[in-house]
Amino acid sequence: MEFNLDEAVRIVNQALSLKVNRSLTDVEVIVLKGAWQRQEYDEIATKHQYATSYISQDVAPKLWKTLSEVFGEKMKKSNFKHVIEQYWRTKTVTEPSFETSLSSEEITGESDYSIFTSHQQTESLIFDRYVERSPLETTCYKTLLEPGSLVRIKASSLMGKTFLITKVLTLLAEQGYRTANLSFKLADSKTHLTDLDKFLRWLSINISKELGLPNHLEEYWDEEDMGSKVSCTTYFEDYLLPSEDSPLALCLDDVDLLFPHPEIYEDFFGLLRSWYEKARSRQRWKKLRLVIVHSTDVYIRLNINQSPFNVGLPIELSEFTSLQVKEFAKQHKLESDMNFLEPLMNLVGGHPYLLDLAFSHLKSHPDTKLEEFLADAPTEAGIYASHLRENWLHLRSHPQLATAFKNVVNSIEAVQLEPMEAYQLQSMGLIKLSGNQVQPRCNLYRQYFREHLFLFP
Question: Which has the closest alpha carbon to 170: 137, 207, 208, 129?
């Protein structure tokens, strides 16, 4: 397998997921890609309409610091490629082994005993901090043990879907499954998302890489006579699926990035549905287990018989409950004094990422005064400054969306937005959507954006 940019991003995302329970943000991917291409920070900033100081003094230093901690070696713009490649050559992060395997009862689903609880000790070697959202994990895992199954996971940005996916795929790999996890964030919007044939080729090649298989695309692809969809199906049916006897669990992440591209999604989602239907009658296709992940409601129009979004098992990740927040705090070794939880949850709710940042900070700075921490949180002096600024910059580059969110944060009651605006804000994780009504996901967002969006009409 060739070590390239896509492989580097994949390795980094997997390492981040296992170590710090997150994946690369969009702007971090931009910095990583730019650094890979040896671009200067001002070039990266100009190309993507960011302030140079934001990239060079904020995003990049924090990215290299985080990666240094995750990979255990000093990392910077000039050497990150070498460090990641060395890690790639010597480590296997996609299939960490457990010390024990599941019992036959757990595999067949004959026992009600929690699969994930039964592996608490061995999981701790891999997942330092993870709050079980019972019964979602077990249900997802057991469903994917079924031939030809499909699971749909919906969760807004930074709600923990990457960790859930990694956890379930890891457990499947332990049972001998082949696993492949492909994020559509890795697709180039101007190249792969404008032409169906290029997109399906990109998809097939990258899944081959995920499985450690050589690229044999040209042996199966015949766009002119068979068409791209039949060529892609043939590649799966005659090459990828039968390459081994074991089932293939394929996770397609961030599929909502296709929603603005009808020239791609209409045929592609119909293709996924056809694969799901094939598994009902064709033995070879029963080996395919699909996981489709998206961060917003499905707002596109699809033929009901050609949509993968109305079949299979739907799973939606919500915020942590108060009990789950307490468990999360305990995992950060903060169980000695839980009095800070109520005011913290009043600020950020049960948002996993925002809680993780807070707990990590409080653990490493035990002398922090809670009143000062809460007062600084929605400001440039707080620990959320980078996260808030990234969202603000995105809104600034989309004035209509910024105006819509301004109306949300300035209203005491839930408000109604145009559907497209609501879906975009939902994807960013900034709002809660209930029917046609929306409100800020948490008070942190209300306080910060009420101050920073006042210039928009």
Answer: 137
Residues with Cβ within 8 Å of 40's Cβ and at least 6 positions away in sequence, in order, are none
How many domains in the chain?
A: 4
| Cis peptide bond prior to 366, omega within 30° of 0 | no
Q: Which residues contact 303 (CB under 8 A, 6 or more apart)?
A: 270
The C-alpha atoms of residue 68 and residue 58 are separated, in whole angstroms, by 16
Is 96 part of a structural domain of the chain?
no
Q: What is the mean pLDDT of residues 279-293?
A: 93
Residue-range definition of the domain harbouring residue 341:
322-372
Mean pLDDT, range 334-345, rounded to an integer: 90
The band of 372, judged by pLDDT with boundaries at 50, 70 and 90, is very high
- Return phi, psi of residue 176, to 5°: 95, 5
Report the CATH number that the domain containing residue 397 is assigned in CATH. Answer: 1.10.10
CB 144 within 8 A of CB 151: yes
CA dist 426 and 296 (Å) reads 6
Instruction: Indicate yes or no: pTM above 0.85.
Output: no
Whole-number CA gyration radius for the chain? 22
Residues with Cβ within 8 Å of 230's Cβ and at least 6 positions away in sequence, in order, are none
Is the pLDDT score of 206 beyond 90?
yes
Task: Compute the distance between CA of residue 452 and CA of residue 389 in angstroms, rounded to an integer.
Answer: 10
Q: Tell me, yes or no, whether 109 and 40 share the same domain.
A: no
Extract the tokens encoding 76: 């910077």
CB count within 10 Å of CB 113 equals 11
User: How many of the other CB atoms lie within 10 Å of CB of 297?
Assistant: 16
